[in-house]
Amino acid sequence: MDLNIGFTSEYLDSNDLRRLGFRQVGENVRISRNSTLVGLENIEIGNNVRIDSYVVILSKRGQTSIGSNVHIEPSCSIVSHFNVQIGNFCTLSHGVRLFTASANYDGNFFTNVFPDAHFQKPEEGQIVLEDHVIVGGNSVVMPNVVIREGAAIGALSFVKRSVEGWGIYGGNPLRFIRSRNQRIKKLGEEILAESKYGLKND
User: Longest Cα pair distance anywhere in the chain, in angstroms?
Assistant: First the structure.
């Protein structure tokens, strides 16, 4: 009896994924069979990307663009009703939530699609993560946010406004903590020069 059954995550590779109807899939892409992706025709993925177990990506209404050298760790959610763009060399740590729509809580509108979505008035807008961004575990990013190149968001943070690049931010309310070293940008350029797989748009 194989005692590992049910305890290991199997991954689909680039060839498997291309047969499923993604908009674009690069090389060396691995997605766990235990993840849930909706709207494959609206999802494009670069090279060297891993998406782990229990990740949910909902892209039925909007476009989801994932760059190269990206890791989306277990239990993340990406609700891409109004477009999500994730740059190169990005990391979403365990349990990160990206919401491009958020219900209005003031009591004048329904907060879900029942009984009639016509009576909703959510806050809506795309989310952009530029290159070399990391979002720490169990953080939440709200609509209409741009996280600029090299920014790092600490765990358990609530991001409802755009942040400048190459800084470390954390908390709720979110605050600037300190600057971040840009050495990883140079390292990324060196790795790409030596890699057999470049960036998505090469």
Answer: 58
Instruction: Specify whether the CB–CB gap between 43 and 55 falls below 8 A.
Output: no
CATH classification code of 22-144+181-194: 2.160.10.10
CA-based nearest residue to 17, from 44, 52, 54: 44
Q: Is 76 left (phi over 0), alpha (psi -120 to 50) or beta?
A: beta
Distance CA 196, CA 22 (A): 22
Would you say 26 and 49 are in contact if contact means Cβ atoms under 8 Å apart? yes
Of 92, 79, 73, 84, the closest CA to residue 35 belongs to 73
Residue 202 pLDDT class (50, 70, 90 cuts): very low
For the segment 170-198, what is each residue's pLDDT rounded down to a tens digit?
999 999 999 999 999 999 999 888 877 77
Contact, 129 vs 110, CB < 8 A?
no
- Give the residue from 50, 46, 11, 9 showing the smallest Cα distance to 25: 46
Q: Are 180 and 167 in contact (CB under 8 A)?
A: yes
Q: Are 17 and 38 in contact (CB under 8 A)?
A: no
